[in-house]
Structures are given as structure tokens and as C-alpha cells.
Amino acid sequence: MNNEAVPLHPAEAVDTFACCLLHPCHRSPQPRPMSDDLFDTIVSLSKQRGFIVQSSEIYGGLSATYDYGPMGVELKRNVKEKWWQSMVYQNDDIVGLDASIMMHPKTWDASGHTEAFNDPLIDDKASGNRYRADELIENYIRALREEGEEAHAEAVRERLVEALNAGEEMNDALHAIIMDEEIPAPESGAFDWTDVRQFNLMFETEMGPVDGQKVFLRPETAQGIFVNFHNAREPARLHVPFGVAQIGKAFRNEIVARQFVFRMREFEQMEMQYFVKPGTELDWYEQWKERRMKWHESLGIDPSNLRFHEHDQLSHYANAAVDIQYDFPIGWKELEGIHSRTDYDLSRHEEYSGKKMSYYDPWEEERYTPYVVETSTGLDRTLFMVLCDAYYEEEVKGDTRSVLQFHPEVAPVRAGIFPLTDKEGLPDIAREIEDDLNQHFNVRYDDRGSMGKRYRRQDEAGTPFCITVDFDTLDDQTVTVRDRDTMEQDRVAIDQLATYIFDQTANWEASA
Ligand code: ATP
To answer: Coiled-coil regions in this chain (predicted)?
Structure first.
């Protein structure tokens, strides 16, 4: 369809897609393209539409590191803000923290990362490509399931669980599975493997000018919270149970990093450690499981694309652990981990620092080391999920409308503002509306091209509302507001616009 052909006249200042015949105008989940296509589509639209690009692209890119463009950075800020509000502002027993990326090296001895933050690495001798041995086997199991070989898949899965729990024998046990099942290298197809060996994922650097002290870039934000247990609790005068929340960068020298922002070497985490009385941790764990699932749904995610997944292998310090998984185009994968970590971390920091990390309960008159329930989600994975879930295309009058159906609260731009023409002062009115609304949320003024083109640009950016100033505005101080999802239009008084958009946003939440 040639959108330029739409005449610029008030009577025709309508959405050229308004008569959607193929899909009735509602907000039910839209059909998505097939998974393989979806992965490529999301990667390419992320670049084209200014969401996410590979870091240092002009130099050929730096593997598994990504930059957020003008749209991506707004989406990211909005998702962070929603998480922070739900954790810190909406719970008077949770406070925030912002710890540094580099920490005293003993932190990582205490947490166990120096010794055990390893992945099992295996090399394909033919191509030189490196793989995580456990992931190779997991993908093999998935392929067996897809081919209907359920019993075989289950037998291999049981062996994998055994191998992952085999302690010092883990490498040999994983290698044996790969050999016995004759799993080929995914890229080269060769069956020519090295032994499996453990690879530590922490990035090392030196602090100080000469013969500096070896320090690590933190591989998780959680330890910043544990070491600040007293510093966060005492000034805030909190008593157990209470939580500390943090958003920040983490770094892992991942072996396999070919999955866009799903697996990065520099990424951001949103973590909350909830300190509880020993013995109550499993109740809190159940509560946080449900609350975290609801939070993901509150982003507008289709609930059928989310599920809980129990861990096959519990860390030695955990007494319960579950992942929230999302049905990514690369399969069901971890989005968030919820772990009941006992008193492992506080006790270890007490042991390594020599400082007391216990809590005195003034009502029960007893001292104990609190247990911890942790919720840990990756911000970048959350954004990947939001992009995948929001994307859809539909046929309208023989043309394709490509939409990012973001929840209005997280959409990078909440409203587009268009003067119908550049005549009779319409741009001035549109600019005034822009100045008013950008006090509340991000808006975008656009006077380029036909109305159809402007609507399409905003649909592609996921902008939920488009406001058009037309000639009627001059008489009655009203504007047209077009809804991205239904493509229906309302006439709204200019002085009611902010209220209208807030109401529609709240209703969207209710109807999503
Ligand atoms: P995986 O099994 O996928 O490697 P993990 O179990 O090691 O993940 P956690 O240590 O529990 O992950 O980290 C908490 C969250 O941080 C994860 O649920 C994920 O959302 C995010 N995360 C972890 N590693 C990465 C990464 N390399 N890139 C992007 N996000 C990550």
C-alpha cells in the first residue's frame, strides 16, 4: 500500500490500517512467526529500529557484548523502573542498594566463585569451536524429544543429572555421555572431541598502577548485597524478614555466546535477597515464586509463554530452587532463578571476614544467621522476552503491518504527536502538547510523511498512542488519539490528554 497517497485532510486523518479484516480489533495474543524466523527477525529489527546492536560494530563487533540504541535504552529504563517500583517502592520491607562492580577478592573466595564458578568446556578439534558440554547434551535431549524419542531422551536426561551431581567425576561423566551417544559438533558435524575440562567464568583484572592487586569483575550482583547486610539493614532500621534489591552489571566469560542478548559476557541483573528466619524460608520461597511470575505477566507477557522449571541439580547450599522460563525462539530457557540459599552466603562471609553476620531478634530475644530467598533475573533476557512477545505482523488490505505490542508502561515512546499539516498553526499546538506530555512520559513529535507512514513508524516502535492535531482542533481544542492495538480513534480534549493516556495505560494492564 502506498501510504503517501493518503490525503492530508481531517476527514481522512484516520489510520489507514483501521479496517483490519483479518484480525478483529482486540488485544488477544497475536500469531507469531515460526521460531527460527522470530530469532532472526528480532535480531534484525533490534538493529534497524534502534533497540540493540552488537558492541563496537564498526570494528567487526565484540562477541557477546551489546549496545542499546535510542529505543532500546528507553525500553530498558522502563523495565528497570517497573522492577524497582515493584520491589522497593511497593514493599516497605525492601530497600535498594548500588554496590560497586569490583569487590575485595576475598569476597569470591567466600562465595565459592574462585573455586567453583566453572562451566564444563569441550572443544571440537575439527573446527576449534568451544562448547559447554552440559548444553551440548541438553540440546541433544531436546532434539531427541522433537523426534519423538521420549524414552531415549529421558534416559540421557537421567544420565546428565547424575553427571552434574558427580562432583570430581563430572567431567568424565559428561564426556562419556557425549561419546556413548556419539553427539556431533553442531557447526562442523564432526565427532572429534577433546576431554571435558572446567573453565572459570570470572573476568580478572588488576587494580593499582604497578604490580596491582588481582580483582574480578563481579559475576553476579548478589554478593554486593550479602557483604552490605548490616550497612543496608541498620540505617533503614529493618528487622527480619526484610529484603535488599539491586540492579547492576555482571560479567561472565561465557563459553558459548551465540544467542544474542540471551547469553552475554557483560549483562545486567536485577536481584533481590530476602533475609528470613531459619525455618520460614520455604514459605517465603513459595510466595516469591508466585510474585515473580505475576511480575513477568505484568509486563504484558502472554502467560502461556512462561512456566516454572524445577532444577535437576540443587547447589549444595540451596534447599529449593526453581527457574522461571520463557519460551524464547531458542526454546524454553531460564529467565529468572528463585533460590532458597539457606545461611550459606552470610556464614561464609562471617568465616572469611571475621565479622559477625548474624542478627539479633529483639522480640524473640535470640540471635541467628538469617536464611536467604533470592530472586535473580537478567535485565537483558527480560528485554529479549519483551521484544519476542510483543512482535507480530498482520495483513491489512494486502499490506503487512508490523507491530511491537509493548505494554504502554514499558513502551520506549508512550505517544506520538502529529500535526496534520504544517499550516494554520497546527505544529505550534502539537509542540505545546509535546511540552506538556513530556513532563509525564517520553513522547515523539513527528511531522514527516503521510499519516499512514507516521502511524506505521510508531507501530514499529511499539508506541501505544498517536495524537493528531487537525483543523477541528482549532475550533474545539480536541485531538484524535489512535490506539496502536485496536487502531480505533477517540476524540479527546487537549487538557485531558495526560489523564486519558494514564487511564488507557491502567486499562491496558487490566485487559492484557
Ligand atoms: P544459565 O544457566 O542460563 O547460564 P544461570 O543459572 O547461570 O543461567 P544465574 O546465575 O541464576 O544464571 O543468574 C541469574 C539470571 O541472570 C539468569 O536467570 C539470567 O536471566 C541472567 N543471566 C545469567 N547469565 C547471563 C548471561 N550470560 N547473559 C545474560 N543474562 C544472564
So the answer is: none
State the distance from the centre of ligand 1 to the C-alpha of 184, rounded, in angstroms. Answer: 26
Q: In 3-state terms, what secondary structure has residue 205?
A: strand
The single-letter DSSP state of residue 260 is G
Q: Which atom of ligand 1 is nearest to the CA of 219?
A: 10
CATH number at residue 459: 3.40.50.800
Q: Three-state SS for 392? A: strand
Give me ligand 1 centre to Cα 321, in Å.
14
Q: Is 252 in the pocket of ligand 1 (CB under 6 A)?
A: yes
Predicted local confidence at residue 314, as pLDDT: 80
Cβ 381 under 6 angstroms from ligand 1: yes
Instruction: Assess whether the C-beta atom of 123 lies below 6 angstroms from ligand 1.
Output: no
Q: Are residues 337 and 370 in the same domain?
A: yes
Question: How many domains does the structure of the chain reveal?
Answer: 3
- Does residue 34 register a pLDDT over 70? no
Give the residue, out of 79, 381, 386, with the most ligand 1 atoms within 8 A of its beta carbon, to mutate for a pocket test.
Answer: 381
Residue pair 244/225 in contact by the 8 Å Cβ criterion: yes
**What CATH number did the domain enclosing 183 receive?**
3.30.40.230
Taking residues 308-325, report their average pLDDT: 89
- My answer on whether 196 and 229 are in the same domain is no
Whether residue 65 is annotated as binding a ligand: the answer is no
Whether residue 44 is predicted with pLDDT greater than 80 in this model: the reply is yes
The DSSP symbol for 401 reads E
Taking the centre of ligand 1 as the mean of its atom positions, its distance from the CA of residue 325, in whole angstroms, is 11
Answer whether residue 106 is part of any domain: no
Instruction: List the domain range (segments joined by +) for residue 181.
Output: 117-200
The Cα 442–Cα 434 span in angstroms is 9
This model's pTM is above 0.85: yes
Same domain, 167 and 228: no
Given this model, what pLDDT does residue 32 score? 53
Q: What angle do CA 223, 271, 111 make, to 5 degrees?
A: 20
Beta-carbon count within 10 A of 137 CB:
23
Last residue of a domain, one of 135, 165, 200: 200
* Distance from Cα 378 to the centre of ligand 1, integer Å: 6
In a shared domain, residues 256 and 229: yes
E-strand stretches of 124-187: 130-132
Flag whether 170 is marked binding: no
Closest CA to 406 of 423, 389, 429, 424: 389
- Are 65 and 156 in a shared domain? no
Does residue 9 lie within any of the structural domains? Answer: no
Regarding the beta carbon of 376 and ligand 1, being less than 6 Å apart is answered: yes
Does residue 373 share a domain with residue 423? no
Rounded to an integer, the average pLDDT of 426-446 is 97
CB 376 within 8 A of CB 222: yes
252 annotated to bind ligand? yes
